[in-house]
Write a structure and sequence with these properties.
This protein is α/β, with parallel strands linked by helices and about 290 residues long. The chain contains 13 helices and nine strands. The strands form two sheets. Strands 3-2-1-4-5-6 form a six-stranded parallel sheet, with helices on both faces. The protein has a three-stranded mixed sheet with strand order 7-8-9. Strand 4, helix 4 and strand 5 form a beta-alpha-beta unit. Helix 1 runs parallel beside helix 6, helix 8 crosses helix 10 and helix 8 crosses helix 11. The structure holds NADP nicotinamide-adenine-dinucleotide phosphate.
């Protein structure tokens, strides 16, 4: 018999992920702080609940997809949180990107209730969420991971077990280091080509299939050239992830010089009130340096 699912947080990512689970035939109980955002999933067959606690009471596996560490703490450990309703042997899968340390703290609280937790953050953006092609990096108990794999396989195309509790979040932060440092390289290559009088579109065409190619070059590069700063992934969320990475690195005394620099440049975007724009707005911060 299929596990009964709960889904908390129906934002840009959570809503399409939940719709894919409904499409796959799972029974899903949903909760979203702003109630109107539940409408689409209810139309698709989800049952609404009044609180995270009420979701947990009816679910074998509860998925959370909210913003930051304090938000996961609130929906899980808060007054009407998951922990107030969770049953023995149920599983919380937190798919938000949050602090690895907070993840471990929440898991320990759930363990006191004989419940389990996996940290399973994702990469692939809203298109990956819509198409069910996300990359999912999972930390926690391996047997619990195997139990939840049929659910994760609906949401993602690449589901990787990476190790103990919190390591899913660590690998997600590695992903963010790769993504943002590469983003900076793309900005520099485009500005350099433009200054030298080379059409940056031609530069992208010529380099994208070679060793310099990347997702950022092929997807963010053309948007930078068109000055299309509409968000796929916002500067605001990127700054949150860079903060999480730099905090963890600081605790381990691991220098991240390139990431520190990108963080400063994204802060410059924030100073110019560009935090709701997509991460391709990074090019504006670098362009400002030459003015
Ligand atoms: P979003 O559209 O802003 O949605 C956030 C959701 O969390 C909303 O449903 C919001 O409820 C809920 N929420 C936030 N704080 C809450 C709280 N304290 N209590 C209850 N509900 C709360 O964000 P998103 O883009 O879906 O991102 C969700 C997570 O996925 C983040 O950790 C993000 O870093 C990660 N992520 C995002 C992307 C992307 O491309 N967007 C890609 C990979 C990973 P309301 O509707 O009431 O505001």
């Amino acid at each position: 018999m299929k596990e009964r699912l709960g889904f908390i947080g129906l934002g840009i990512m959570g809503q399409p992920m939940c719709l894919n689970l409904l499409k796959a035939g799972f029974k899903v109980i949903v909760y979203n702080r702003t109630a109107s955002k539940m409408d689409n999933t209810i139309k698709a067959g989800a049952i609404p609940a009044e609180s995270p606690k009420a979701v947990a009471k009816e679910s074998d596996v509860i998925i959370t997809m909210v913003t930051d560490s304090p938000d996961v703490m609130e929906v899980v450990l808060g007054e009407n949180g998951v922990i107030q309703g969770i049953r023995e042997d149920s599983v919380l899968i937190d798919m938000s990107t949050i602090s690895p340390k907070v993840t471990q703290e929440i898991a320990a609280e759930l363990q006191n209730k004989n419940a389990h937790m996996l940290d399973a953050p994702v990469s692939g953006g809203d298109t990956g969420a819509i198409n069910g092609t996300l990359a999912i990096m999972v930390g926690g108990n391996k047997k619990i991971f195997q139990r939840c794999l049929p659910i994760l396989n609906i949401i993602g195309k690449t589901v990787t077990y990476v190790g103990n509790q919190g390591t899913g979040q660590i690998v997600k932060l590695c992903n963010q280091i790769l993504v943002s440092v590469t983003n900076m390289a793309v900005c520099e290559a485009i500005l350099f080509a433009q200054k030298a009088g080379v059409d940056p579109e031609v530069m992208i065409r010529a380099t994208s299939q070679g060793a310099g190619g990347s997702w950022q070059l092929s997807n963010l590069g053309p948007k930078m050239i068109k000055q299309d700063f509409s968000p796929g992934f916002s500067v605001e969320l990127q700054l949150k992830d860079l903060r999480l990475a730099l905090e963890s690195a600081g605790k381990m005394e691991q220098p991240l010089p390139a990431l520190t620099l990108v963080n400063e440049l994204f802060l410059l975007n924030k100073d110019h009130r560009e935090e709701k724009e997509g991460t391709q707005a990074l090019i504006k911060s670098i362009a400002r340096l030459s003015k």
